[in-house]
Amino acid sequence: QVQLVESGGGLVQAGGSLRLSCAASGIIFSISPVAWYRQAPGKQRELVAIIFSSTNTDYADSVKGRFTISRDNAKNTVYLQMNSLKPEDTAVYYCNTRLSKNYDYWGQGTQVTVSS
Hints:
The structure is a single chain. The protein has strands spanning 3-7, 10-13, 18-25, 34-39, 46-53, 56-59, 67-72, 77-82, 91-100, 103-106, 110-115. The chain is mostly beta strands. The strands form 2 sheets. Strands 2, 4, 5, 6, 9, 10 and 11 form a 7-stranded mixed sheet that branches. A 4-stranded antiparallel sheet has the order 1-3-8-7, with no helix packed on it. A hairpin with a 2-residue loop joins strand 9 (91-100) and strand 10 (103-106).
């Protein structure tokens, strides 16, 4: 059974930092890209960051320079380091890995709330 489990969310003041983790079981993370998405109330889910390999990453313009995605293949875990957080970063954050329509897995999400 495939499971992606996010953790690390919480309440933080603007300017603070959080590190999200996405731990996988039942699959090998290193064979597929892993992405972080977020969804704020009343808004569509949006791509925040994606990692293809340790040196191949991409970010939404809104988080460039503040967020860093990384992976630890030995731990089968992907991280999202979030610095200089803003109230507009408040959302539920989800991790996803996808190779095809039949290899498309999501975690349950973790809430990030940034107070002003």
